[in-house]
Specification:
Length: about 170
């Protein structure tokens, strides 16, 4: 997997998307105990569509680190940064240089929600909260199952609207 060569325009777009991810994740999201409902994945999906898995993964990891220090909700835990990077990589692997269809968006949403958000983040929460994996998994599963089609619809809408506004040379 070869990363797209970094240009000045790419740096600006990546920086903007990282900033937008932080705002959408930390300031616009709803936090309920160990559940977080947010839209921080949207700028990362844009990065994945534009620049591929490596830059989407790097962007999400940077956003997680900066957001964790600017708006802490507890001690910084690097496991969530690993999950963020993996999420960006998955988005890139499924969306980069591909026609964005609802089925493709549904597949990547299911992968991210089940593998990253449900399984991996629940595993990290067992360390932080000291609760059993099965207990946390059961309580988080419904939110992630509901999130799959919502994410898919939003990814398709992003591709149909926002992506049209980004100049071709910035891609």
């Amino acid at each position: 997997m070869k990363a797209k060569k970094l240009t000045t325009e790419m740096i600006v777009v990546i920086a903007f998307m990282v900033a937008l991810e932080i705002v959408l994740s930390k300031l616009v999201s709803v936090n309920i105990s160990f559940l977080r409902i947010g839209f921080g994945f949207l700028p990362i999906a844009i990065l994945a569509i534009l620049y591929g898995p490596i830059w989407a993964g790097v962007g999400y990891a940077i956003g997680d680190i900066i957001g964790g220090f600017l708006f802490p909700t507890g001690a910084f835990f690097p496991g969530f940064t690993v999950t963020a990077a993996l999420t960006g990589v998955l988005f890139g692997l499924v969306l980069y240089n591909k026609k964005i269809t609802f089925v493709r968006a549904l597949v990547v949403s299911a992968l991210v929600c089940i593998l990253c958000n449900l399984l991996l983040n629940t595993f990290w929460l067992t360390f932080i909260l000291g609760k059993g994996f099965a207990v946390l998994l059961a309580s988080r599963a419904i939110k992630e199952i509901v999130a799959i089609p919502v994410m898919a619809v939003l990814i398709v809408l992003i591709d149909k609207t926002v992506m049209k506004a980004i100049p071709q040379k910035a891609r």
